[in-house]
Amino acid sequence: MTQTRILSRDQSITGLAQPRIMDDLDQLEAQSIFILREAYRKLKPLSLLWSLGKDSNVMVWLARKAFMGHVPFPVMHVDTEKKFPEMYAFRDEYTKKWNLDLLLGYCPPVEEIDPSLPPAARSAARKTAGLAAMIDKHKFRGVIAGIRRDEQATRAKERVFSPRGAGHRWDVRNQPPEFWDQYATPYEDGMHIRVHPLLAWREIDIWRYIEREGIPLVDLYFAKNGKRYRSLGDQDITNPIESNASTVAEVIAELETSRTSERAGRAMDHESEDVFERLRVAGYL
Amino acid sequence: MGDNIVTESFSETPRAAATPIVIVGHVDHGKSTLIGRLLYDTDSLQDGKLAQIVESSRKRGLAVEWSFLLDSLQIERDQGVTVDSTRIPFRLGSREFVIVDAPGHRQFLRNMITGAADAEAAVLVVDAKEGAQEQTRRHAMLLRLIGIRHVIVLLNKSDILGFDEAQIVKVESDVRQLLGRLEIEVEAVVPASARDGDNIASRSERSLWYKGPTLVEALANVPPPASRAALPFRMPVQDVYRFDGIRYVAGRIERGTVRAGDRLSIGAQGQIATVAEVCRWHAPELPVAGAGESIALRLEPDLVPDRGDLLFPADDRAAAPERSARIRTRLFWLRGEPLRVGESFTLRLATAEHDVTVASIDAVVDLEDLTLREGDSVPPDGFAEITLAASHAVLFDPFSPGFGDGRGVLVDRYQRIVGGAPLIGPAELADGEHAIHPTASRVSAARQVQTRGHKSGVFWLTGLPGSGKSTVARAAELALSEQAINATVLDGDTLRAGLCSDLGFSPEDRHENIRRAAHVAKILAESGQVVIVALVSPLQADRAQARQIVGENFHEVFVDTPLETCEKRDPKGLYAAARAGKIPEFTGISAPYEAPVSPELRLPADRPEQEAINTLTAFILRIVQP
Predict the structure, then answer these.
(1) Are residues A130 and A262 in the same domain?
(2) For residue A116, is it within any domain?
């Protein structure tokens, strides 16, 4: 684990230092850095959604990788005011430690949300409304969000740069082609692009990267009294899972054998078959 | 610079990234069923997903339907087709794969490309009984153009042929011939039944004559991606930053390696700098970086390259990229309207953007038999070989399957990606051909709308002499100006007084007159102007050509005044002269007038003139108001 060992692997017989052989995490990291740098160059003003969960922490970390230790755009926390107290403490600590430019947004009361949605989804939709207000207020052209394809089938349909038209709507039937690392740019006033640098990552990649890089997390992810959270939403609509994994390594070991979906603890996903898509078309992450 | 760490966890071989496999093929040849079967046979389903499928099937009163796994969006279920690509991981032994499902419906080609472009290998699903169909050919063509190196053919539904050797060998030879024409190397042709599981994960008892691999064996044989490390260094500059007083040239290495001390040539200007440091944040400190890494370089001298500048080894001509202002390229065309010569685009090439014009369409692919034919336009979802002319020399490497080189993408003025252009190489000029390098406006359509307050358009008024075209056009021009809309009228007599004063009234000269008017209208419209053309333009073919020149902005308006009315009005005394034989080839009298079949707007003569003016003005306003 010392520099000598690295040189012994990376030194060729010609004496010239050789590049590292990239493993899967190196490749995911390099691609995410590429995406973040494209977003920073092409979309101004730009902001990163920091939900305080594990994925968005990885995303902040990747931004620091892309910009040599800096996050050169604001991070946005859209607060439902129903998060766990541990999450607020984490936010305040790392805003300082990582020198983040934090923007806070708040969500309207649930009474103002579409009453045709099932209860948990209606609660989740508050966040969409809060986010929309923030985007309008700051006129963001780019919003970086930490969704992954493997989380939920609807998210599997996403683009890395996903245009949102008037009213922030996602036109899932009419998405632009995206290939060879060429991404959509905004073409009309009032639209913005959702940027998804983690789209290709899987849950286990996130955890292995957290372990490799030593990225801090809220400790709700680690087991206490036989329970831990696998995914963090609002207090009232997120349930912990049975688990004894109390370290990152133990979580990884658990995931390698687990066969349940990550969002199994999110109530809104199970209320009706199309609820997630309805939320996402309207602007939910 | 930055925060470097020296710790690293070791394993003997680095964990490889999952191999992306795209599954393509004609609609209903069984792609989704194949994916469901593969996931089932390789035990790759999450418990949650299995429960969802069972639940969905149960709600619909169906037996377990494997394709439901992919049809995860409500709208897809409603239509019964897969609309977009989906990615699903699965594992074979120690190797991980990601399946990319691509839809079979033709209009969704762009979704297929989105899914397939990153794939390492493709499974082309062909119904054994139906053989290669239109989409089979289209998808095969696309596999070649986006650069998929390994193709496995699955002859699905072979059970319908009873796995009969003679019939299957016949289909196999047809498919191999087809793919051979595309210079695609076929890894295996597997007779199979996805529904029943024959030759998917396990060898079928029904095809004992078949000695080739099962699908799973064929997938396991796909070699890992070719190393790009040994090729000459390329890094397109993505951005230049200044943090903590240090300038960083950021980018991703497309191929080769770079070391501190290397001398690099920068972009087409050819400035030279030395790499002072290979910079990363929170990573093992190494003075070298290789293909695929996103890094930042410190250069000495501290130059400021532009985004898009290609960095490559200085002092080694053999390691330099191609350099040309005319580039021959293959093309897959994604726009809803055909591509024509003379159109201008932005060519995106890695992080670079170049203004280009289509100088020629050299060949168009006939999708019936995948041969190259002559053609003057590329249809929607079509394939072709074209020549692009840029306003200045472009640095590039020719496209090569499996590598990042030469992956051009065409973007229109509305910032839409309209085509993929795997670059072939510098274009040679034919003898006697004079190289022209038209430049395109850098003002986007959106910006024009912003500054002018309206969109542009060409409104082409056709009708008999004396039908009132110029009168209506001029009145509409005035009405539009009152609404702060800039309109220009190009009418026949005005054009003939100047630009076209060398032309007479022979069919050839009329044709040329219309061609010139169309080009002027196009130039004006591209600058954001509203153009009203008032020209007799009697022939369908000439108007069709005008539409072709102008493009999607063209709107045909028929000033439908009958001959008797025109002749009665005869404001210029022309009909009288024509009847007297003083004007040869006069439209309506001694030369034909072909009325438009389906004009976008018809202005009938039986209404007061003011009504025609109002109708035309309202029609134009509806189209050009943002």
Answers:
(1) no
(2) yes
